[in-house]
Amino acid sequence: MQATEATLEAKRQIEICNACRYCEGYCAVFPAMELQRDFTVTDMSYLANLCHNCNGCYHACQFSPPHAFSINLPKTLAEVRLETYAAYAWPQPLARAFERNGVVVGLVMAASLAFVLIATMLIQSSSVLFSAQTGPGAFYRIIPWGVMAAVAGASFVFSILALAIGAVRFWRDTKTTLSGPITLPALKRAAHDIATLRYLGGAGEGCNDLDESFSQTRRHFHHALMYGFLACFASTSTATLMDHFLHWEAPYSWYSLPVILGTLGGLGMTIGCAGLIWVKIATDPAPVARRVLGGDYALLVLLLLAAITGLALLVLRATPAMGVLLAIHLGFILALFLVLPYGKFVHGIYRGTALLKAAIERNRNALVGEG
Asked: Whose CA is closest to 202, among 211, 214, 217?
């Protein structure tokens, strides 16, 4: 990653923070920065993705604006994070998608919807598309399995490949001499921090989600979104196994595992997305980097629409509305797969990687201290 105005400003602020150390135990960022005395551009990339944007350090800082030092780490590190998304993106020419991410997501969403709707209407007659379809294979009477699998499979594989390459690039670029081998204790610690969203809970009382008061609000909404998304992924995976290996064609009963997981996941995603959108609107704007908001809102809205249309499809699958709802839902899913490697979603990948690196460094430092 190359030096930019944002990384240089982050370096200036972090050097002041490292001298002050008032926020020493606030989150993962401060213990990580205290292990170093000199900072590089890649250190800024690493620390920016360790930041959970809880705003605690901003409200506690005696050097925040209007002080001459003008320390505003949440805002500055958010700007650096946005630059890391583009720096490690694959294929690199698509990194420009991060520059106007909200617009890009909107265009991809519109194009994906139009593509799936038009393709569905060309494939299927109106008498089938607008009539109720029930029983095994009902979905495939609207969109043939081969077409559905080819479009969804290709976009999914591309998304996973792009995310994996970005994660490898981030790991290699931010791996400093402080890092050691990946150990089981480090993996367990990082997995715990990721699964519990530990650093969105502050020291236990919560973070400054909306203002100077402490709250667990954003953490709870993040949990709903994260586990809702995982439940939906598990639902799709389970349905795929049932269809291809057990030869049980969808749609499945209300009490089947794919439907239960999909319902819980869709509700979790809906609650999480709506809640996080509300938090972004209501929060104190001072520590917020305005130029990253477009992409944040765009991804949340896309996830919300994917969840809502999925739930609507589930409820109305035995009605004449099923055909159009299926096409609309698949359009949103296609858009989601295409934009995941070029939006805020990558922060979850880089943050997990940064948390693993932090766990390795903490364990290594503890062993050195014991020695």
From this structure: 214
Q: Is the pLDDT of residue 101 over 80?
A: no
**Number of residues assigned to the chain:** 371
d(CA 310, CA 304): 10
Mean pLDDT across 262-290? 95
Counting beta carbons within 10 angstroms of the beta carbon of residue 157, is it exposed (0 to 12), middle (13 to 18) or buried (19 or more)? exposed
**For residue 6, with 0-12 CB atoms within 10 Å meaning exposed, 13-18 middle and 19 or more buried, which class applies?**
buried
pLDDT band with cut points at 50, 70 and 90 for residue 262: very high
Cis link prior to 65 (omega < 30° from 0)?
A: no
pTM for this one? Answer: 0.91
- Give the Cα separation of 194 and 219 in Å (integer): 12
Distances in whole angstroms, Cα of residue 184 to Cα of each of 15, 225, 271, 354, 360: 32, 28, 34, 16, 10
CB atoms within 10 A of CB 175: 14
- Burial of residue 294 (CB within 10 Å: 0-12, 13-18, 19+) is middle
Around Cβ 66, how many Cβ atoms within 10 Å? 5
Please check whether residue 142 is in contact with residue 129, taking contact to mean a CB–CB distance below 8 angstroms: yes
